[in-house]
Design brief:
With 349 residues, the chain is an all-alpha fold. 73% of the residues lie in helices and 0% in strands.
Length: 349
């Protein structure tokens, strides 16, 4: 089990991570030097918000590892995650594809330019593959995360087996995963299906944070020694690494600043008290925010403002706030209204 104070910290990290995911998906295309510098700082050099999805994998690994010493833990974990991951994966795949189809029909009926995803752009065959969760190239929204996480749970006994061998084998295994993360498949050509499966199905880039989450839970000494006072030094190190990345960006600086990003998010989550209405809405924001992003694009398109505003740096903060506020209002107002439907969509969370 996870202690109460740690549970609150993890919940806060999940909420912060959900907000970062939305920020990731409203990225503008800068048209000015100032805009280029600002966007490059936020989306590239700082490590935010790209750390958001790895953060979710890490949290998932950490929570999973709290049960690895129980009898039959893996069987229980898989059974539970069929309900919490696989069922929502297919439910949201259908929902998101249906929304895309409705917006497609509405766009064509109004004779507007197509600005929202077209699920039929690659043909009916690819649409059916996507509908059944078998398309590893054209990802619907962000539901791929649920599928990838389930696959990682399936192979998690391999991680646990290695980590139980001791600290040195654990560190060597994590180093191996760093190599996989750095040189593994990431941009599939579309001609080799296995490549697409590894990149977007199993999601090799998520293996490292997922395994790291398990390791941190199994060897909690490091995390227990991290204090808020210590995090001040982490903040200083983050600033130094940021300067290094501007002078000469390299892989080592990327990994180090990513680690410090997580530590700083952990420190923030540990030191803040969020209102009660944020409880349990992180996954809801994560799964539903794309709908509101598409709706905003459709509305702007109908008003003839899409080309002018959508990718501009000036509209970018407003786009983010609109999507965040609309999504948050929706998930808060609909929470606990239809328990059976919510169990289907969110696995009882």
């Amino acid at each position: 089990m996870v202690a109460g104070n740690k549970s609150n910290t993890i919940a806060n990290m999940g909420f912060i991570g959900a907000l970062l995911v939305v920020l990731l998906h409203v990225r503008p295309i800068p048209a000015t030097s100032l805009g280029t510098m600002l966007v490059d700082f936020i989306y590239q050099k700082s490590g935010f918000p790209g750390i958001a999805v790895p953060l979710f994998f890490g949290i998932s690994g950490y929570l999973l590892a709290s049960h690895v010493n129980e009898r039959g833990w893996w069987k229980k974990a898989v059974k539970k995650r069929v309900k919490t991951l696989i069922v929502p994966f297919y439910a949201w795949t259908v929902i998101l594809l249906a929304v895309q189809l409705v917006l497609l029909v509405a766009t064509q009926a109004l004779q507007l330019p197509q600005v929202t995803p077209n699920p039929l752009s690659n043909g009916v065959a690819w649409f059916l593959l996507e509908l059944f969760g078998l398309d590893f190239f054209h990802l619907t929204g962000i539901v791929w995360y649920l599928r990838s996480l389930f696959m990682m749970v399936l192979i998690s006994p391999l991680f646990v087996l290695v980590f139980k061998k001791g600290v040195i084998p654990s560190l060597l295994f994590l180093l191996f995963l760093v190599v996989v993360h750095r040189y593994g498949p990431y941009s599939p050509s579309g001609n080799f299906y296995l490549d697409g499966f590894l990149a977007n199905g199993l999601y090799c880039e998520g293996l490292l944070p997922f395994a790291a989450g398990i390791a941190i839970r199994m060897y909690p000494t490091f995390l227990n020694k991290v204090t808020l006072e210590w995090l001040k030094w982490a903040g200083g190190g983050w600033c130094i690494l940021l300067i290094i990345r501007y002078i000469h960006d390299n892989v080592m600086a990327f990994y180090l600043i990513s680690v410090l990003d997580v530590l700083l998010i952990w420190g923030l989550a540990k030191s803040i008290i969020l209102p009660s209405w944020t409880d349990g809405i992180s996954i809801r924001i994560y799964l539903s925010h794309m709908i509101f992003k598409w709706l905003l694009a459709f509305v702007l398109n109908g008003l003839g403002l899409y080309t002018l505003l959508w990718d501009s740096v000036g509209f970018w903060p407003f786009k983010y706030l609109i999507v965040v506020l609309a999504t948050t209002l929706f998930v808060v107002k609909t929470k606990n209204r239809a328990p059976r439907i919510e169990t289907l969509l969110f696995g009882g969370r």
